[in-house]
């Protein structure tokens, strides 16, 4: 069983994907880490993140050991969004992601284009979203809890900017697959989102 989970930043899809993978006994891949690792490695090397050829070279050289370290922060997310627009980067990573999904027994993958591009034939497709305001509030609260001084309005502007960039890119724009189950987590806590996702997965399995 392949479960494809897509959605914008801070919608809760990563937490949900990990929980679903544990619940159904499937391996999990956060595909966003691939792009974050490329962006981080390029920034650390002083490379031009807006150069498609350079970004493609870093993508082709990506190895599993590059996926560790601090790749979860806002800065790494912004770097990922910049390199993800380059076709050479996406081409280099498509095979990696599809090979992970094709392993015996299936897998759970989350990202921006899993159900539309990477695994269009996935058994279950979920699109996890929430309003920009709710996602900005969650991100602000998360950073404040870590002792960082942040401004909600600035975070909201960044969320909207990234949404526009991800949805407006020419290659594999962020959007729900035609047959995806949309889960809006704006008014759901983690348990509520998990229950909605399990209901969708179990319904698809029953029909199959």
From TrEMBL:
It comes from the Bacteria. Pfam families: Cytidylate_kin. Keywords: ATP-binding, Cytoplasm, Kinase, Nucleotide-binding, Transferase. ATP binds at residues 7-15. It is found in: Cytoplasm. InterPro entries: Cytidylate_kin, Cytidylate_kinase_dom, P-loop_NTPase. GO terms for biological process: pyrimidine nucleotide metabolic process. GO terms for cellular component: cytoplasm. Belongs to the cytidylate kinase family. Type 1 subfamily. This is Cytidylate kinase. It comes from Oharaeibacter diazotrophicus.
């Amino acid at each position: 069983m392949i479960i494809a989970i897509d959605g914008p930043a801070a919608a809760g899809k990563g937490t949900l994907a990990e929980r679903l993978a544990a619940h159904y006994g499937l391996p999990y891949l956060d595909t966003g880490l691939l792009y974050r690792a490329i962006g981080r490695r390029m920034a650390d090397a002083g490379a031009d993140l807006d150069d498609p050829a350079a970004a493609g070279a870093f993508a082709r050289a990506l190895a599993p050991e590059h996926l560790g370290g601090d790749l979860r922060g806002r800065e790494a997310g912004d770097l990922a969004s910049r390199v993800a627009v380059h076709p050479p980067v996406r081409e280099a990573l498509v095979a990696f992601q599809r090979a992970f999904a094709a392993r015996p027994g299936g897998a759970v993958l989350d990202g921006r284009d899993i159900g539309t591009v990477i695994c269009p034939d996935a058994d279950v497709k979920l699109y996890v979203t929430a309003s920009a305001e709710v996602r900005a509030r969650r991100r602000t609260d998360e950073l404040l809890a870590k002792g960082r001084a942040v401004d909600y309005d600035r975070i909201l502007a960044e969320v909207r900017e990234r949404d526009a960039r991800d949805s407006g890119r020419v290659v594999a724009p962020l959007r729900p697959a035609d047959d995806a189950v949309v889960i809006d987590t704006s008014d759901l806590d983690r348990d509520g989102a998990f229950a909605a996702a399990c209901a969708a997965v179990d319904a698809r399995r029953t029909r199959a």
